[in-house]
């Protein structure tokens, strides 16, 4: 590409009405800490309280030792660390579906922009649906995965309060799905594989979104995934709830992180419909078969990416690197196949799910 053309692209993406994406990983993830990077403080889930107490004791001992150089704490710290690691391993090897739901929603879990910052080089964000507006809940653009050009489309929840408001907690409006359709059209035109990163509690249910055709936009996005004449790899990195997730997840390969969840409705939504109560979410999660392990057994997904002990939020960089390797392997498996072939295989895959479900 010529120098002049690169300057034009740079100038366009510096316009104030286009999103300025900070695709670098957040300081907390870079240091193996929480998103805000303010220190080693972690957010603990309810079932992690015994681990939290042990890690708090370890931190107290280290602070005391920092004030008094004569203190010898290595043996006690090693004992507590071993005990905490054992408790953590035991907790995460027997997670219930509801506990997996909590892990999938963990605020320190790596998000779409963290994956872009670590895996994608030369990322060029593309904005707007060319019909109404830009939707920051869906991030899309061109980039390279280990040198391979791809179109990446992902749902971003936001890492802090400002980010969550800006990205609408990952809940896309119709213009977000129409932007995704536009980018899939572009990928097909230039024969680029599409990688989608799914992480949403669902499509935005606001009045304005419904007035602008939310259901129609989701349906058309799902249809475009199925008709796309280019490889499509969908990765569920956190929550994959409702049509808001399915609209980007009808891929040749559907991949889930070990503690991600994927379903047509959230456990809370299921509870309110079936039990007409908000306190049955745990029972709903168990009945819905929304975990990666259950969905693999049903043939809904193709691959599970193992997470570090304690979940992706404890070792985000390790999780991101492993995810990149799995995506790359999935793309290699589809190399050499023409667009018509990958489209037909994708449609047959999803039709086959329906056939099996009717038997």
Written overview of the protein:
By secondary structure, this protein is α/β, with parallel strands linked by helices. It contains 16 helices and 8 strands. Strands 1, 2, 3, 4, 5, 6, 7 and 8 form an 8-stranded mixed beta sheet that branches. Helix 11 links the parallel strand 5 and strand 6 (253-257). The longest helix has 20 residues, at 339-358. The chain starts with a helix and ends with a helix.
Give a brief rundown of this model.
This protein has 359 residues and is an alpha/beta fold. Helices cover 50% and strands 14% of the residues.
Which characteristics define this entry?
359 residues; globular; alpha/beta; single chain; 50% helix; eight-stranded mixed beta sheet
Layout of helices and strands:
Elements: H1 3-13, H2 27-30, H3 49-67, H4 74-92, H5 97-104, H6 112-119, E1 120-125, E2 138-145, E3 148-155, H7 161-166, H8 174-189, E4 194-200, H9 207-211, H10 214-227, E5 232-241, H11 242-249, E6 253-257, E7 261-263, H12 267-274, H13 281-288, H14 292-298, E8 303-305, H15 316-334, H16 339-358
Parallel strand pairs: 3-4, 4-5, 5-6, 5-7, 6-8
Antiparallel strand pairs: 1-2, 2-3
């Amino acid at each position: 590409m010529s120098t002049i053309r690169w300057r034009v692209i740079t100038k366009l993406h510096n316009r104030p009405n286009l999103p300025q994406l900070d695709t670098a990983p957040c300081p907390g993830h870079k240091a193996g800490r929480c998103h805000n990077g303010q220190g080693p403080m972690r957010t603990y889930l309810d079932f992690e309280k015994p681990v939290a107490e042990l890690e708090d004791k370890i931190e107290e001992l280290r602070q005391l030792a920092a004030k008094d150089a004569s203190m010898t704490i290595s043996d006690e710290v090693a004992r507590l660390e071993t005990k905490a690691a054992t408790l953590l391993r035991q907790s995460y090897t027997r997670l219930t579906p509801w506990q997996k739901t909590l892990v999938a929603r963990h605020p320190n879990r790596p998000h779409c922009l963290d994956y872009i910052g670590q895996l994608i080089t030369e990322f060029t964000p593309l904005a707007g649906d060319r019909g109404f507006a830009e939707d920051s809940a869906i991030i899309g653009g061109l980039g390279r995965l280990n040198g391979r050009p791809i179109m990446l489309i992902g749902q971003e929840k936001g890492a802090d309060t400002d980010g969550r408001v800006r990205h609408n907690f990952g809940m896309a409006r119709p213009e977000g799905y129409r932007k995704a359709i536009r980018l899939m059209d572009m990928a097909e035109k230039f024969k680029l594989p599409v990688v989608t990163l799914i992480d949403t509690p669902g499509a935005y249910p606001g009045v304005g979104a419904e007035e602008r055709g939310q259901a129609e936009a989701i349906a058309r996005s799902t249809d475009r995934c199925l008709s796309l004449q280019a490889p499509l790899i969908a990765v569920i990195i956190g929550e994959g709830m409702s049509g808001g997730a399915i609209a980007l997840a009808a891929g040749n390969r559907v991949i889930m992180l070990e503690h991600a969840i994927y379903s047509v409705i959230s456990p809370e939504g299921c509870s309110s419909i079936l039990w007409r109560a908000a306190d049955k979410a745990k029972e709903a999660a168990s009945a819905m078969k929304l975990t990666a392990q259950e969905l693999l057994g049903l043939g809904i997904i193709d691959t599970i990416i193992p997470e570090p002990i304690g979940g992706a939020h404890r070792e985000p960089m390790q999780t991101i690197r492993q995810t990149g390797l799995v995506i790359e392997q999935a793309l290699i498996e589809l190399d050499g196949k023409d667009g018509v072939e990958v489209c037909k295989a994708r449609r047959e895959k999803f039709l086959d799910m329906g056939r099996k479900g009717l038997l």
